[in-house]
């Protein structure tokens, strides 16, 4: 096996790996592949195959996070943390109150790739191209549970536990800095997606998606 380009550079220059060291390659197929470094040259690294086995880090519970685009690099931060937490997919959307109306998807996908490598995942979460809020609604019926995190739900909404029950997969929906418009709230509640509270305090959007994903994955046994 010959590694070249950025993977060779990462190994030789960033990690400063040596001949004889073992490396684990994860080609996004759910398995880890162990190699020994046999030689380096200016532009490539040569590896010898040792063994491969199933990667045990992937969660069984499949969580997809629908995240409204956020200002600056906050969406990138959320993608990085959601990847570490074990989220299956991130689906950014543009809604009535999103300030940032577009995003460089390759930047988000690079954040997912780097985070997956750093935390030892076998699968890199998919990061979809941003779509409009209305376009995400037809997708929601495919999930066992939809956790519609609504900032106005405290006191009258549901809890995460009540919505998750015996789900095997779920979608978490988090709005932008400006929250959800009334039109968006009724578009979800009129289809039976109950508003869920994340507690008494109003969280920043990136906090809501990261903390919401952590609570859901913990609740579904992924932190045992
Ligand atoms: N502009 C809104 C306001 O002042 O009420 C706050 C929106 S909050 C910054 C961004 C998103 O995080 C919300 O749309 C919601 O999805 C989620 N969120 C934040 N705090 C929440 C809470 N306590 N309960 C449920 N969702 C929350």
Output the keywords.
7-stranded parallel beta sheet; alpha/beta; Alpha/beta knot; 224 residues; Ribosomal Protein L25, Chain P; elongated; binds S-adenosylmethionine
Summarize the helices and strands and which ones pair or pack.
Layout: E1 2-4, H1 5-14, E2 22-25, E3 31-40, E4 44-54, E5 62-68, H2 74-85, E6 89-94, H3 105-119, E7 126-127, E8 131-132, H4 133-136, E9 145-149, H5 160-164, E10 169-174, H6 182-189, E11 195-196, H7 205-219
Parallel strand pairs: 5-6, 5-10, 6-7, 6-8, 9-10, 9-11
Antiparallel strand pairs: 1-4, 2-3, 3-4
Helix pairs in contact: 2-3, 2-7
S-adenosylmethionine is lined by residues 149-151, 153-154, 174-175, 177-180, 197-199, 201-205, 208.
In short:
The protein has helices spanning about 5-15, 75-85, 105-120, 135, 160-165, 180-190, 205-220, and strands at about 1-5, 20-25, 30-40, 45-55, 60-70, 90-95, 125, 130, 145-150, 170-175, 195. It is of the alpha/beta class and about 220 residues long.
Structure write-up:
The structure is a single chain. The chain has 224 residues and is an alpha/beta fold. The protein folds into two domains: 2-54, Hypothetical PUA domain-like, domain 1 (Ribosomal Protein L25, Chain P, Beta Barrel); 62-219, Alpha/beta knot (3-Layer(aba) Sandwich). It is 31% helix and 26% strand. The protein has helices at 5-14, 74-85, 105-119, 133-136, 160-164, 182-189, 205-219, and strands spanning 2-4, 22-25, 31-40, 44-54, 62-68, 89-94, 126-127, 131-132, 145-149, 169-174, 195-196. The strands form two sheets. Strands 5, 6, 7, 8, 9, 10 and 11 form a seven-stranded parallel β-sheet that branches. A hairpin with a 3-residue loop joins β3 and β4 (44-54). α2 (74-85) packs parallel to α3 and α2 (74-85) runs parallel beside α7. It starts with a strand and ends in a 5-residue tail after the last helix. The mean pLDDT is 95. The structure holds S-adenosylmethionine (SAM).
